[in-house]
Amino acid sequence: MTPSPPLFLLLLGLVGAQATLDLRTAAAMASGLCKTRPTDLVFIVDSSRSVRPSEFEQVKVFLAKVIEGLDVGPNATRVGVVNYASRVKNEVSLKTYRTKAGLIRAVTKIEPLSTGTMTGLSIQFALNVAFSEGEGARVKSPDISKVAIIVTDGRPQDNVKDVAQRARDAGIEIFAIGVGRVDMSTLKQMASEPLDDHVDYVESYSVIEKLTKKFQEAFCDTVSDLCATGDHDCEQVCISTSGSYKCACKDGFTLMDDGRSCSACSNAATDVVFLIDGSKSVRPENFELVKKWINQIIDKLDVSESKAHVGLVQYSSTVRQEFPLGRHNNKKDLKDAVKKMAYMERGTMTGQALDFMTRNSFSPGQGARPGVAKVGIVFTDGRSQDYIGEAAKKAKDNGFKMYAVGVGNAVENELKEIASEPTGEHYFYTADFKTMTQIAKKLQINICQDEDPCECDSLVKFQKKVEDALQALTKKIENMSKRIALLENKIV
Q: Which pLDDT score, from 0 to 100, does residue 343 have?
């Protein structure tokens, strides 16, 4: 939390100019306001046999989190990844990915090599290949930093001192991260001066994430105007403030409790159904994070008898309705019901789940209201084991607004196929379950977005009246048919 002005001024008086810089940087990082200076950054990652597969997954999460804090782009920070054991593999070139999302997806797909530990060879490879212009590195310039971050857990089987010196002489700043039983003297031979800033040690891969903040701050160069750059989550209007920003709405719209989204319709009602992947790849601990994520989104909804109704469906190899629309009409009961959801495990039949949602979850028999906007939020962590195209199309053809959220090994093309148009606003991806909170902040469930809120409100009411009138007319026709039948029987 940002310190209040009196406390902030007191801190400045006590610790001086350096503390001023540190506090501003920390506040900027916390608010996502840091703009990283142009950097060619290469991760050099040890995947020798001493690194277990589960530990290598933790390294990839660490890489993804550092990347998340960078200003990635061809004219900003370019990122490469070198994977090494007894041999060296260039997994990601500096020239390959121009966006964070694509870069993080590529990192999640890296597999360990599981042989020896030729750290010197990997540094030589980075010097000769990864940092070459052919692989996307920029011409040496005072305005562009060259940085290598080495992660290793053992003693190298080759010499690192001389090759690391050549890399540093070439202008590459080297950070060395050691894990577990690493040889500390080797780390010091590789790292740039001052060693206190460039050598880090963690007891195990399970706590390597604690270094994320250090590296995000290390690359934080300037604090940009978040509203000007567009890197904010305000739905309509962003207002710059000192070191931060706040959100506002256009005339006729109201700022919601989340402080970001805007409501156009005072009486707009919405039926929202969550379709949640409970397959075995999710794992129990991550499934708990998914439930917290659902409740974060529920917190943003205006849940009541007359406004937002929420239903929940879980799927794996089969589909199970946890509770239908309208069963819980206050946030407390709704969130308690989500917390009680039991993990199914087994397979990933996303197509079958989409078909169930379309046929059942949004039917009047399951609590769906006539004339009310329908929203489906689909969460998955992997590739579907069945075909999703037809079911996804049918959901959108029925007028449902579809959001697709993917984590880890989720397939981008499948997410786009599920999502409504424009897909860029309706599908989201993150590499790690722990960063799902960012998606909850960005996902705005808006049904009425017309410039004139009255027009939007009237449209919803008009649809409801039309459906009610049609139902009344149908009943009248049925009654008239019965009377005609009775008359015919009398005549006969």
A: 93
